[in-house]
Amino acid sequence: MEVLATQVSLLRVLFLRGLVPTLALVPIALALAVGVGLLGGMLRVMRIPVVDRLIWFYIYLMRGIPMLVILFLAYYALPTGNDPRVAATLALVACHGAYMIEIFRSGFEAVTKGQREAARALGMNFWQRMTLVILPQAVLVIVPAAVGQLIILVKDTALTSIIGYVEITRMGRNLMQTIMMPVPIFLYIAIYYFAVCHLLKLIANRLEHATRVRLGSTERAAPATARAAGGAR
Amino acid sequence: MTATGAGNTILEVRDLRKHFGKLVVLNGVSFDLHEQEVFVICGPSGSGKSTLIRCINGLEPKDGGTIKLRGTLVDKRNLREATEKIGMVFQNFNLFPHMTALENVVSAPVHVLKRRRAEVVEEARALFEKVGLSDKIQSKPSQLSGGQQQRVAIIRALAMQPDIMLFDEPTSALDPEMIKGVLQVMQQLADDGTTMIVVTHEMSFAREVADRIAFFYEGNFLEVQEPAGFFRNPQQPETRRFLGELVNT
Amino acid sequence: MTFEWYVVARYYPLLLKGLLLTIKFASISVVTALLFGLLIAVLQSLRVPVLARLLDWYVVFFRETPLLVQLYFIYYALPSLGILLSAGLSGVLAITLNEGAFIAEIIRGGIQGVDSGQPEAARALAMTRLQAMRLVIMPQALRNVIPSLVGQSSYVLKDTSLLSVIAIPELLSQAGYINDKVLSPLTVFLAAAALYVLLFFILDTAGSVTEARLSIGEQKRWKF
User: Fold this and answer.
1) Which of B59, B81, B95 sits opposite A121 (nearest CB)?
2) Residue B157 and residue A133: Cβ atoms within 8 Å?
3) Cα gap A87→C124, rounded to integer Å
């Protein structure tokens, strides 16, 4: 059947050429954003006066400036030679890194005061407290929220198509010039994103359930996650 | 009963002050602690007893006064090092929930004191045996009762081989049946010659184990005596009222 | 690359025009999204047999696909199916459907957060389910989620920037247009960013004030 054949070749073009760049962007951006979050979260928890204010301001800006504007700024205004890949990565890391900082900070603060005091009373320095006591417990709160943030990051990769990054949405738009079949094109694209995000959502739900089971009576962990994740949808 | 405070002065606190905003919590507190002494502090809630010992090991920054441990002044720079020598047992145990009981006890000596793990584990096992929890070594805190958790908390502090042990109302968060077990462990420690400061409401413990009992009232020591004198012949009217209320509860 | 003030001086009227249009679209979309989300949440909570299931799927799908793709679909694909909408309408529709799904989730969370004794008491007073919803549950649910809803409005604001891709002359679009003429991207996009942050500041401050007003009487947050 001709209709089926065209659909199949449509899918082939969209996914074979569009899938890899789309997916490739995510792990790199995620890893860097998590790095930013970990570093920034620790810095914020240390409560150094000037540094804390600066980080707060950076987060404020990232919350207020639309992702598309950040992408344009990264593309045009930075000496990256107008490379969409670099610009896209930079923009995603800058914006989502900010949200990650808040997620990590909430995670750290979810660890009760008594834990920190016990660690200090045993003579542990900041680094030892962090790695031995606080991080292991904070992770339980951080990971579900981080996966939620990842979902938003995946959705944001669609925006990178606008600065020319060749990913699936861009492929779709290009295809539209040649094949006038916008309905299936965008439907498939939507389904692709939905598949990835829904999978991540299921993972996040599992993790959140596991967290509540592990922490038990630590009700305060839940509002911390909600507050951080809710700030980024 | 331990030997009476004939040992050297191990801790010297002079004119310790602390305020929260306008509220004065510690009002120029001074005292000496002697080696192998059991020093019990009691008093009404909110009088500042917890704040006092939290200032001694630096959990609360002090606003004035000096603390000398074995003759060395404790200040911001050597505070962390000083906490290696001061053990603390919290009212809420504060065991690390993601570690087993053994790991809780062994972590600090290994990472902070940089001691060899095998050695520390062996010592830890002996401590677990001493408090009757040998079978709980691999348990997580969530699997232990309150009394068991507190006993683990005590040997966690002991594993650092501190010069003095501080107890901040160690039995206040425990159900009545479990209090006895913990107090027994503390009595054992006293018999072994551990230098202890204990903030508590458990007057029977104080009577049996303490070398000196101090009544803390509104920011300072009001009365310090040996148990016999303290209970039979309290000098201050506030002390008498406090003891009277305790009898009634 | 430097920030060129003369560009701002010369072209600020255009930027302001874009700003105004952004505000207009954001305002309309916020209202429509709120109403739409509210409707969805109520219908879902009432568990109307077939509809509730369909709405569940709608919410899930629109939350887990990008707004851009939804926008493209409405603007480029719907015409093939016979539905031809203007750019402005497409934009508002896309944002409404997208944010509406998020708002529906928020409100539904608020409804579930209402103490379970409340609907029981309403039932015991012989109220119909609709009356219980209207008189007892929704007022409490909404009071719980107002801070979150105010937060969502800043997302709607940021969403309007996507309308630039379907040629609506809002703020970002104007910035791009100016850049095409004077080739000063740093200037125009920083200027646009600053204006967005200004709007965000207004929304965020309004949100904090609302939250503060509502929490008078609630517990203090723990200190670190």
Assistant:
1) B59
2) no
3) 61
